[in-house]
Structure formats: C-alpha cells, structure tokens
Amino acid sequence: AIIFAFFGNGIYICSYQMSQNFIMICAGVSGATPTEEMNGAGNLMDFLDEPFPDVSTYEDFHTIDWLREKSRDTDRHRKITSKSRESFWELVKSLLDAWSGWVVMLLIGLLSGTLAGVIDLAVDWMTDLKEGVCLSAFWYSHEQCCWTSNETTFDDRDKCPQWQKWAELMTGHSEGAGPYVLNYFLYVLWALLFSFLAVSLVRVFAPYACGSGIPEIKTILSGFIIRGYLGKWTLLIKTVTLVLAVSSGLSLGKEGPLVHVACCCGNLFCSLFSKYSKNEGKRREVLSAAAAAGVSVAFGAPIGGVLFSLEEVSYYFPLKTLWRSFFAALVAAFTLRSINPFGNSRLVLFYVEYHTPWYMAELVPFILLGVFGGLWGTLFIRANIAWCRRRKTTQLGKYPVLEVIAVTGITAVLAFPNPYTRRSTSELISELFNDCGALESSQLCDYVNNPNMSRPVDDIPDRPAGPGVYNALWQLALALIFKIVITIFTFGMKIPSGLFIPSMAVGAIAGRIVGIAVEQMAYHHHDWIIFKNWCRPGADCVTPGLYAMVGAAACLGGVTRMTVSLVVIMFELTGGLEYIVPLMAAAVTSKWVADAFGKEGIYESHIQLNGYPYLDVRDEFTHRTLATDVMRPRRNDPPLSVLTQDSTTVEDVETLIKDTDYNGFPVVVSTESERLIGFVQRRDLTLAIKNARQKQDGVVSSSVVYFTEDVPQLPATNPQPLKLRRILNLSPFTVTDHTPMETVVDIFRKLGLRQCLVTRSGRLLGIITKKDVLRHMAQMMNQDPESIMFN
C-alpha cells in the first residue's frame, strides 16, 4: 500500500507491507537537515545525556519509545564509526564497543550458572534437613552423606549410619509411633520456619522478589519500566528466598524464578556498559538473552532456553539477539555442568534412558494425556486467577505472611503421610520418569518376576503388577488430587514461586498411572486387536515412564501454552530424542483443548490481572472502530495541550510541564491553524530549558521558545530567545482520523510506539497513546478499561 504522508514541513511517499513484520519505507522532501531526517528526532544535543537529579529518561511505570531508542543507538554507532577512522585508540574503542555485547553475555552465563548451581545444592541440603541430618558433615544432603559412607550397601543405599532422622538422633529409636510423630512434627516445623523466613525477607527487603517473575519480565521486555524489579536487592533476596521457598515443601518450582534471577544478572551487567545502561531498547536485547540463560540452567536445556525466550518471553528478538542468547545459554549450561550439583554428570535431575521404542497405537493414550493437560491447564488458570483476584480485592491480601504460613502448614501436614508428596517435587518427577530396571527398589517397580527369566538387564519383559505397584497407584492418585488443589492456592503468594515443576508433577503422576494401566492391559490382554500386532507375550512393550514424560509435557503446555520450546525442553531435559513425536502430539493437543476454553496462558492471565500495559502480538483485533473513536480529546474534554512554533514563552512551557504529566507535546504552527509541525518529548524540553538557564545568558521566563529554523530579528529590548528546533521530532508517527483501529493496534504492536498523532489534511485533531489503545481493547472485550495500570 502507498501512503502520501505530510510530516512537519515535508512531504513523504510511504509504502508499508503488512506481513509477519510491519515494514514502512518512506521517501520524500523535507526542510530539515539530512541528519535530522535520518534520525527522526534530529541529532540530539549532548546535554540530553547529562543527568539531572529530578529528571530520568523514563518515569517508573511508563513505556519506552522503541523508535527513539533505535534512533539514538544508530546515532551512537555512527559517531563511533566516524571516530574510529581518526586514530588507532578510537579504533580500539570501537572494537571494544562491538565486543561489549559478547562480554555481557559471558558474564550473564557465568553468574546465572553459578547461582543456579548454588541454589540446587542448597535446596537439596535444606529439603533433606527437614527429615534428618548427616552426623559426619551437617552440610551434606542425605544422598551426599551416604555416598561418603563406607558402610552403605547397594540394597540399603538410602540408609547409612552417618545419616539419622531427627527422632533417632533425639530418642535413639527409629521405629514406632513415637518417632513417627516426632519426625512428623519436626517436618512441619522446619517447613513453617523456611516459609516464614522467605516471606519475611521478601516483604521487608524486596517486595518485587515474589512470584514467578515471568509475567513482569514479559511486560518489561515489551517496553514497560518497572524500576527496582531487576535491581541488586531483588537479585539477592530472590536467590535466598527461592532456596527457602522450595525447601519448605510448598507446591512450587524454581524454574520461573530462575529466569527472573538471570534477568537481574543481565540488568546488573548492563549498568557496567554505557551502550546498554543509557539505552532501554538495547538493554531489552540483553534481557531477552538473559531469559534464555535462565531457562538453560533451570532445565539444563540451552536450545530450549533460546526457543523459550523467542516463543514465550521476548517482544523484540532480532537475529543478533538470537546468537547472543545461544552463547549466553551455552556459557550458563557449561558453568552449571562444571558445578555438577546433582552428582550425575548431567545438567538435570530427570535424565532417563528408555530401551523400548513407542508404537503407533500408543498415540491414543498420548493424545488423551494431551486432552487431560489442556483441561488441567484451563482449570488451573481459571481457579488460580479467581483466587488471586480475591486476594487483591479482599482483606486476604493484607496478610501475606499469614497466608503463606497457613498454606505451608496445610501442605506439610497433608504431604508427610504420603511418601510421594513428602519428597521434593523434582525427586518425585525423577522417579516417575524412570524406567523399571532389574536394580530398581521403588514401589512402582514391584512387579511379579518370572523365575525362569534370563534376559539382559536392560530388556525386561512386561510383568504383572505386584502389591507394591497397586499400593503406589493409590498413593499417586491421592498425590494427584493433592497437587492439583494445593498448587492453585500456592502460585501467586508473596514468595518466589515457579509453576513449571508443579505442572510437570501433575502430568507425570497422571501419565504414570495411565502408563501402568496400559502396560497391565497389554500384559493381560495381549490377544486384543490393538495389542496383537506389536505386543507379543514376553516382550517389553510399554514403558510407563514415557507416559509420565508425555503427561508432564501436556500439563505444562496446557498451563503455559508453549509448543515448540516445550518439546525441545522436554527432550533436552530427559535425553529422550526418540520420543519427539509423542511429545509433539501431547503438546499440540493440550494447546488445542486449552485454547478452546480461552486463548490466554497463565502468564498472560496474570499480566491482565495486574493491569500491565502489554500488547500481545498473538492477539487479534477484529472490531470495526476508527482512530477518531479512540483519540483524545473526546467530546466535552479540555483541548489538547500543544506548543506553538513561535509564540510560546519559557514560562508557558514550564507551567505546562508542571501542570501535566504527559510524555510529550505536539508542536503546531499556531493555535488557530493547528497545522502539525512535530512532536517534542517532555524530558528533552525539561533538560533543554534547565541547561539554557544555566549556560545561556539572557534566557528568562519571558523568553520566546522557537521551534522554527530561523529566529526573526527581535528588538534589543526583548529577552534572549530560546531556539529548540534540534530537539523537535519533525516526523512523528501520524494516522488519519479514519484509519481503522485494527491497523493502529498493529502499528503500536510492531513499532513499539508510545503515542501516535491523529491528523486530517495536516491539521492536528488528537493523540492516541498506548494507554488509550489498551483501554479501547479492554472495552471491546467487555472488560474494565480502568484496570490498565500506568502510574
């Protein structure tokens, strides 16, 4: 499409193409200098980078201007390139600037990998501390304690003299009702202590350290400013309280918060390089890569981390960021592997190796698990959002410490009697994923063995289930109900809480139950037509652990609506490269089923609940409204606050800045003609006037501000004029009053605009801000338009 556009004092011919990326190409004639035309906002003066105590680039809870940030970075890069030809030292500086991005990625990978390793080790130790202590070295976890013991046997590898439960240590007895009650009491006490410390530290030192962090990271990456959310205190407190929260036994994981921790690391290292600290757009490129590093260390999935950042988190993801994300994820994974927190030379706890291929007939239960995952995702999102909304709108929200203590107490009391809920969720998932070999001692592997069997260890045929398996099934069914209910009330409390692990646990439990059921059906009814072709007597046909893996993927997909990155994360997580097709089938099915009940995943739902100004690229706007229906001023509203090009005084500008909180002001020829000249940012005006008063003689309150190219000859008695044309954006983005809102919404999404001016034949009619767009979209969906939070 071709558009003839009138921008300021120039005429442009613009063509745009609506495809996957919004592309607009403009060419034309303008009265401004070539540099000003190239940069849009002009070649901004050096004083715009000078700090003033009460003026920041962007205010808290405001949106950045992506086009302006891109223009500033282009200016900076052009300046460095031109200087590099002047001397050898300038050439070295330009090379250092080019390499600074890779240095930042290296530092992010090293720090996030180290923090993840420390968190994993600390969580293992503190989780086991609830049940007992290692006498030879109290800082050892149960597993590490028994590794170091020379008296540990293979059959009793979980028992060793150096590890004692609290009741045995205090009373000298390990069996009986008394020791059981004492262990029960101390388990609950430790859980309450850990959760109380976590919520207290969050509340006192870093309120932003609570929750998953991914909804806020998505909002920040879309261009929103939340000061302090990625600060040093948040990083420190989130790391410490994440260990405490996971160790308390609550139904939450550390994977989502690790993305927040990695982004805090990214923000920390951005402050060391002016290239990133002074440009919010460039900073967000680093944060996108940091999110990939966070998932890389959370799951030991570097490729999955990059895809997660691309699919789920990032708003702007150029090719350069893709490579840097890949590098950051690689360094983070390498660092974690060097620490080896799980002692298995793997990046994750869940690594499994299956020895049986899957068969086409098994796609039916895999797809059924996908349906279950979609239904669970819908149930969880609706119930959790309803509970969180109740928390925000009732007295419950005023007592976050009490809520955490109550949920922890209920969780610990109900979890202890069941061995599958007593252990950490990661260990539970690991056991559910495992294939039953000849050396497994788990209840889930209590099958009736054929005494005449003489087969290799890795190829054990299907066998009838023993009493241990049936007992485990009852316990798993109770654990499934418990996890489904308690996770709804846990996610969103004022402590660090991830959702990946609890969702995977729900799916893994359901999948293992289905897997055992299919296995027993295949064993007892191998003559049925569905089993006859692929499951002969004495063969190893069904792997229940695979069903647990597929169920975990389905439930995680139902909650988050991930697809590609989810499948890659799952096969990196488990090493199950051969099982990509079942994982894909389950992930796609769960997304289809969940999308049938609502398009938003859990993170988008929490963004809406908190009123963050997030324009989701995946949403569709299909209403037939026009720009004139949304622009301000509306009928009966006061007129638009504008500046004139040659009749506004310094005092008028200062009064306008003081009386309003707008981010900028349109500049017109006169209040009568209202013909648009350009747009000037509030911050640039403030800095320019402050600088002029300090450094330019004769500028007083009655001085006239000129945005024209030439200042007319003034009588000697008149005060010194202030020329501010260089800070004027001569090509602000404009649409006509009859532009469909569908196009306007697309422009805001794909160009990251803060505001857009509405004109008719070059005459200014009004303005549309991102706030107006979001309110209009909420109104069209019958939601409260005032729920969007800005200040």
Automatic annotation (TrEMBL):
Signal peptide from the UniProt entry: none
Membrane-related topology note: Multi-pass membrane protein
Residues of the CBS domain: 631-695, 728-786
Keywords: Antiport, ATP-binding, CBS domain, Chloride, Endosome, Ion transport, Membrane, Nucleotide-binding, Repeat, Transmembrane, Transmembrane helix, Transport
InterPro entries in UniProt: CBS_dom, CBS_dom_sf, Cl-channel_core, Cl_channel-4, ClC
Sections of the chain in a coiled coil: none
PROSITE patterns xrefs: CBS
Transmembrane regions listed in the UniProt entry: 99-123, 184-206, 226-246, 258-274, 286-310, 359-381, 401-420, 472-492, 499-518, 546-571
GO molecular function annotation: antiporter activity; ATP binding; voltage-gated chloride channel activity
Gene3D superfamilies: 3.90.1280.20, Clc chloride channel
Entries under SMART domains matching the protein: CBS (SM00116)
Domain of life per record: Eukaryota
Any one GO CC term of the record: early endosome
CDD domains in the cross-refs: CBS_pair_voltage-gated_CLC_euk_bac (cd04591), ClC_3_like (cd03684)
Compartment(s) where it occurs, according to its Swiss-Prot or TrEMBL record: Endosome membrane; Membrane
PANTHER family for this protein: CHLORIDE CHANNEL PROTEIN (PTHR45711), H(+)_CL(-) EXCHANGE TRANSPORTER 4 (PTHR45711:SF2)
Family: Belongs to the chloride channel (TC 2.A.49) family.
Protein name stated in the entry: Chloride channel protein
Phylogenetic classification of the source organism: Eukaryota, Metazoa, Chordata, Craniata, Vertebrata
